[in-house]
Design goal:
This protein is mostly helical. The chain has one domain. The chain contains 10 helices and no strands. It is globular, with a radius of gyration of 17 Å.
């Protein structure tokens, strides 16, 4: 996948989502703050890859995933009490618990979200906390340097973009804006078709 396609996707969703007006109710505001954070992580991943800070880009995939899942859960699944507790610093359920609840809601019952999360799970801890992969990827034989293969960067871009696409659709869901969701879907599908 070309980096330019990922940059275009960021510009497209930022343009379409920028300026949405919101009634200030915490049942929407708190989840939207996390969904916006997930989109910001995606944009940062794209920029960090362009700057060739690949290890830092990889490290942001886990926080992107976490902000995305927490945002969905807080909007679709959390009780008023759970939302209030989150707002006072209590952690939500773990990833498994979030997925179980999210996949009981419309649009996620097919179980594909769990499959996507399973595809990336084994790498996330290492990427974020400097595990064997992050260490081994810097050993260039006669020198220590950053840099990852094209395949690794394509994997990262593909997964980060997919998360950002799902995040943008969830933002549209919060705003009950099916027309904007359809437009984002059309743009994303065109980008993905070019990338393959």
């Amino acid at each position: 996948m070309e980096l330019q396609l990922a940059e275009n996707w960021v510009k497209d969703y930022e343009s379409l989502l920028n300026g949405l007006e919101l009634n200030h109710e915490h049942k929407k505001v708190v989840p939207l703050t996390l969904l916006q954070l997930a989109l910001e992580h995606n944009a940062a991943i794209v920029k960090l890859i362009k700057l060739e800070f690949h290890g830092s880009a990889l490290a942001l995939l886990r926080p992107q995933r976490d902000a995305f899942l927490r945002g969905i859960w807080l909007y679709r699944c959390a009780t008023e009490e759970q939302l209030s507790k989150f707002m006072t610093g209590k952690e939500p359920p773990g990833i498994k618990g979030l997925l179980e609840k999210i996949e009981q809601t419309d649009g996620y019952r097919h179980g594909k979200l769990s499959s996507l999360m399973a595809d990336i799970k084994e790498f996330l801890h290492d990427f974020t906390h400097g595990g064997l992969y992050q260490s081994a990827s810097r050993d260039k034989g006669d020198r220590i340097a950053g840099g990852h293969s094209e395949q690794q960067l394509e994997w990262l871009l593909r997964h980060s973009m997919t998360l950002s696409f799902l995040t943008s659709l969830e933002v549209c869901h919060v705003f009950n804006d099916a027309l904007r969701a359809h437009e984002l879907t059309s743009i994303f599908n065109k980008i993905i078709s070019v990338a393959h």
